[in-house]
Amino acid sequence: MSRIGKKPIEIPAGVTVDIAASEIKVVGPKGQLLRFLPYQVIVKKEGNQIIVSLHEHTGARELLNIRALWGLVRALIANMIEGVTKGYSIKLEIEGVGYKAEVQGKDLVLDVGFSHTVKIPAIGGVSFLVEKNIITVSGIDKETVGQVAASVRKTKPVEPYKGKGIKYQGEYVRRKLGKRVAGAQVAPGAK
Asked: Mean pLDDT of all residues in the chain?
């Protein structure tokens, strides 16, 4: 049994859920999301709850692979409901002299030490907000927000010597010693 898959999902007020044969549509105050469901999982709406279960005629060998899918589908539906009610946001920090970011239209434009500017498009309803050296990526789909934030970070990852680059807010970057500092720290008694 999947411990996550067994939990029912509460539908908050102001959210409507439509379940068809192979898809689920969630509409809330922030927008709507649509997801296709795998055929091995049954999704039912009972009152103000969503129940996710497995088909009863699956074999023992198939059951091992489907249990993970059961919990995954339940988590994805819960994320959809949370996305249309509260939304998701990820904050990134820019560190470095002359590094800057700005929003042009809906797209994010980064100037991070290259000979050209890097333009990241706002896909899938994602929006950008820049305040000083903090970039906020927000939207209603958790996967899309995470993917866009990862692509922003990937344009200039933090290097370990000076700490310049783009990182998630609160991310710890292990710093390395430079050649000059590392060479000066010689073990006692060694020449």
From this structure: 88
